[in-house]
């Protein structure tokens, strides 16, 4: 059974109150609300329901959850993400606690693809310590690598900001989840989608069709609620039809060894991946 203090903490979170609280804010905290109240993540980690048996982590940073704990984290993180779609901690937690079957399918598909198979074998990471971003900035402007560098610069983002996977109970699937997370900005770049709310929602639709991850379906379906009237019109008339077409006809983005494609011509790569011409939405203020 869950400890009484855990029950009290989860009761305080509640379905309605969760919307206004922060969830999972550090490796030793579960979530922190607006009054700086903390929830100890150790209450959830490495314990089974009878609270007696210690479980060993399957990989560095892994936290084992019981079915009840996983359900509670899934619901709490979903509500937190609904309230603030830019809460990367809540989004990451929801993706990890709900994605097992989709990750298994993604893993199987990658093993059947030549590039995907090598990705699984090599397990490359996308980080400033593994990719020389400044060198990408010195490539010709028509290359994929330069366009990725420029995308990061314009949007003031870094590949180092991606959360480490913790709640996936399989080392191979944990890597697939990490890879999905780390190529997200590369997918944004190759789809020519900005990082505003409209761009994020459209990328989520493409990813949902290609990966089947509940996180992506969730983001595509509910993210549009956060769009303002003008952005919603563009979304319905141009963006969504394009995203659905792209998701179905483009080659699987998880099976692309992006690190080997940086010197490739950007437009040639887009043609190879069968990506339809995207709508121009970069300057649209899309958030409500």
UniProtKB/TrEMBL annotation:
<comment type="similarity">
    <text>Belongs to the COQ4 family.</text>
</comment>
<dbReference type="InterPro" id="IPR007715">
    <property type="entry name" value="Coq4"/>
</dbReference>
<dbReference type="GO" id="GO:0031314">
    <property type="term" value="C:extrinsic component of mitochondrial inner membrane"/>
</dbReference>
<dbReference type="GO" id="GO:0120539">
    <property type="term" value="F:4-hydroxy-3-methoxy-5-polyprenylbenzoate decarboxylase activity"/>
</dbReference>
<keyword id="KW-0862">Zinc</keyword>
<keyword id="KW-0472">Membrane</keyword>
<comment type="pathway">
    <text>Cofactor biosynthesis; ubiquinone biosynthesis.</text>
</comment>
<comment type="subunit">
    <text>Component of a multi-subunit COQ enzyme complex.</text>
</comment>
<keyword id="KW-0479">Metal-binding</keyword>
<protein>
    <recommendedName>
        <fullName>Ubiquinone biosynthesis protein COQ4 homolog, mitochondrial</fullName>
        <ecNumber>4.1.1.130</ecNumber>
    </recommendedName>
</protein>
<feature type="binding site">
    <location>
        <position position="200"/>
    </location>
    <ligand>
        <name>Zn(2+)</name>
    </ligand>
</feature>
<feature type="binding site">
    <location>
        <position position="185"/>
    </location>
    <ligand>
        <name>Zn(2+)</name>
    </ligand>
</feature>
<keyword id="KW-0496">Mitochondrion</keyword>
<dbReference type="InterPro" id="IPR027540">
    <property type="entry name" value="Coq4_euk"/>
</dbReference>
<comment type="function">
    <text>Lyase that catalyzes the C1-decarboxylation of 4-hydroxy-3-methoxy-5-(all-trans-polyprenyl)benzoic acid into 2-methoxy-6-(all-trans-polyprenyl)phenol during ubiquinone biosynthesis.</text>
</comment>
<keyword id="KW-0831">Ubiquinone biosynthesis</keyword>
<keyword id="KW-0456">Lyase</keyword>
<keyword id="KW-0830">Ubiquinone</keyword>
<keyword id="KW-0999">Mitochondrion inner membrane</keyword>
<feature type="binding site">
    <location>
        <position position="188"/>
    </location>
    <ligand>
        <name>Zn(2+)</name>
    </ligand>
</feature>
<dbReference type="Pfam" id="PF05019">
    <property type="entry name" value="Coq4"/>
</dbReference>
<dbReference type="GO" id="GO:0008270">
    <property type="term" value="F:zinc ion binding"/>
</dbReference>
<feature type="binding site">
    <location>
        <position position="184"/>
    </location>
    <ligand>
        <name>Zn(2+)</name>
    </ligand>
</feature>
